[in-house]
Amino acid sequence: MKKIITQSKNKSKKKVTVKSTKKKVNSNDFLIKSQAPILIIGNDYNVIFVNDYFAQLFNKSKKEITKEFITNLNFYDFANHKLHFENLPFIKAINEKRNIADYELKFVDEKNLEKWFRVNSFLIENVKNDFSVLSFFTDITKEADLENIFKETISNISTVLFSTSVDNSEFNFISEAVRIVYGYSPEEIYKNKFKLLRSIKPNYFEQFKKFIKELYDGNERTVEYLMVDRFGKEHWVRHSGIPIFRNNKIVRIVGMIQDITEEKITQLKLERSEEKFRLLIDTADDLIFTLNGFGYFNLVNKNGANALGYTPEEMIGRHFLEFIDKDDEEKVVESFNKILNSSGITIFEALFLDRFDKSVLFEIHAKPIIIDGEVSGMLSIGRNITNRKNDEQKIKELNAKLIEANRIISIERERARNKITVLEELNKLKSEFISNISHELRTPLASIVGFAETITSDPDLPKETLNEFVNIILSEGNRLAKLINDLLDFSKLESGDDELHKEHFNFTQLADEVISQFENSINEKKLILSKEFPQNEIVINADKERIRKVISNILSNAIKFTNPGGRISVIIQEFGKEVEIAISDTGIGIPENQIHNIFQKFTKISRPGSQITGAGFGLVSSKQIIDLHKGFIKVRSEENKGTTFIIRLPK
């Protein structure tokens, strides 16, 4: 029946009617009652008609469905690219003046919910020689979801799925897993199917040809063969094929190719072995064993026995408790009683002793072997958790050190808060400093002059006396030279004229060298020295001689102010990009009211009960050196209990 669709215009809306050669039918009834969403737009892109289903689809009233609304809808193609207005099928139908069939697109609403539609758009000629486009929307969301699920499933299966033509001349389809098994992309296989054929080892090609012939004869078949991938690595594969028939004629071959290398290797090993179960458990790193009803070993895997320093043969026939630490026997016996009274898995820890009496902690998962309702033995798997327990202990120790570090940080913060700088005292401190320096210079100089005058005035001095005087002059001269060098170095640091000469060196080795320089002093005072250094090297980039001087200054003070029989400890720790050294002593300590002045320029700390020697700027110089290295130095001290200096430097 020939139909001509015409439209008549009113002031506010357009009415679409259908003329028939037999009778007239109002097409509005047909369009309104249609079960599919329908959209009609004119050649000016304005919306002429939408039915209730279309309005409900977008959760709008019919009046709200306008050209502007359609323009702003979020439509996407299968590649998830947003479609521009001119690329929508009903707009393309207008622009290109042709029907657009089976166009699939995705709509995303304001709540990010997705729906897929198949759109068919048809041109409708109107009585005034213009036209409009009628579009039917078919909901294919379920089909699209299934297709996406199918693609996702296929792409994540490690087995190669394929479909070939009957004559095997080309691949209709091959899954992405071909990259994993053969090293080729599906596109490369589509272009050249011989890449897979050439990968088969020559010894297995005849077997493969028989497999293909069986498929052509209409039989489902599976073949296993050895192949070489594109990188030269050998794989065992299981190749399965199924002929697909249509009208009693084979139209294609489908199947799968599975990498069975590990399975095949295991199978070949098991075929050569009389003890298949033994081979299986010996591949495990855990301790796997069975006990008879009396607690004697029936079976032990090789790796498990080796973990205890034994061979399986040495353990089989011996009682389980022979390998358990005596202090742990009672706990193990209690666990055995639980196993005997349970049909499930019992977990307990047991401390084994290996061949060399070294403790090895295992976590045992045990299950009774029940035959005819009675327990005839026990099957167990033991996991070595010695390292895990040691790690847990180390974590506890580190937490304790962290608490101590936080305590030191708290002390440092308190010291920083309480630190005051009094500008008026600076001149007084400078005067005291000059006085100290003058005294320190005068003392060795007086000795040098005095003994030199004695030697000059008495040419008949005995040789022994002369040598003694000369040694005194030399010693005092060295002392004077060191003092002058220290003073010059301090002056350079103070003025900022001196530059650091940085180099890479092992920090722990430098600390050891400095400590060795003081061995005689330590031994003379019978001090106890302890060191706690990391086993690995700690390489830093710094002025090696300056850092040596800092460690030497602090260690010298620790020795000087620690009474005979006391203790000195040196601890080095690594913190990411920083290294820390802590030097502690059990000496006389620093008065609390003087701690905040310890790094003050020109300050010399007076310690109770101690005759102080030196110019008093060693710690000041040390702080200047550490500051130049962008590090920090801090001190914690209590009178008659000791002092701790902590230095942290960037590596």
From TrEMBL:
GO terms for cellular component: plasma membrane. Keywords: ATP-binding, Cell membrane, Coiled coil, Kinase, Membrane, Nucleotide-binding, Phosphoprotein, Transferase, Two-component regulatory system. Residues 221-272 form the PAC domain. InterPro entries: HATPase_C_sf, HATPase_dom, His_kinase_dom, HisK_dim/P_dom, HisK_dim/P_sf, PAC, PAS, PAS-assoc_C. Residues 436-651 form the Histidine kinase domain. GO terms for biological process: regulation of DNA-templated transcription. Its EC number is 2.7.13.3. This is histidine kinase. It comes from Stygiobacter electus.
